[in-house]
Amino acid sequence: MCHAYSITTNLEALRRLRFTFDIAVNIGNLPPQTGIYPDMLAPIIRNAPGGYRELVKVRWGMPSSSRALYLAAKERAKKLIEREGRSISPDEFDEMVRLEPDRGTHNVRNTDSGHWKRWLRPEFRCIVPFTSFAEFSSAIGPNGKKRGNTWFAYDADRPLGWFAGIYAPQWTSVRKTSEGLISTDLFAFLTTEPNDVVASANPDSMPVILTTPEEIETWLTAPWEEAKALQRPLPPSALRVVSVGPKEDPEPVPDQSSLF
Hints:
alpha+beta; hypothetical protein yedk fold; 33% strand; 2 domains; 7 helices
């Protein structure tokens, strides 16, 4: 699964889309983000209430399933019982489930799952700008160490691209124990089976990438029965490896170009 990406382009490149969008206050001047990881804020363009579109920074990581949180709380309760040598009441366990920390699910693959279906309608879809993305590889490189991040982009200039994403507005959960219960907007992007280039680092998946203005419009507006056809890998010729190893991909985009 894609566990990191970068966006180093500017607002002008994003404005080259064929539709207009409002810009949220938290965008600022859109400084480069050379290493975006789960639970960080990152820009998306979303279908916003009121029929307009908005460029806004949102926290990466959609809500995990209730079953996943229940099982995590159950394991935590088991350790508590063993450590303190006491039982816990049903009400105490329910509270543990409610407050179970959820760092979020940052890639969405099984769109047949009832957990994800609620957010597949157009009003919860978004597009996520990127200039490169990373898949982690445990394979040993020539230096005898794990290869680590393998960064992929359209080419060495890292032109702007778009992931197909979904978002959850004002979801209430515990993201970090230190924060406690909060309500915040969340997003993630879809994945699919990898093409041959991405499979060199991750044989299981790659992000769903939209390659034309028409595909972007379909993703943001079409019924799911039509939009779901976009959950497919790109041809191998569409991507290349641009860096191996670093946690961030700081290479500049010389002409701030866009695939479009």
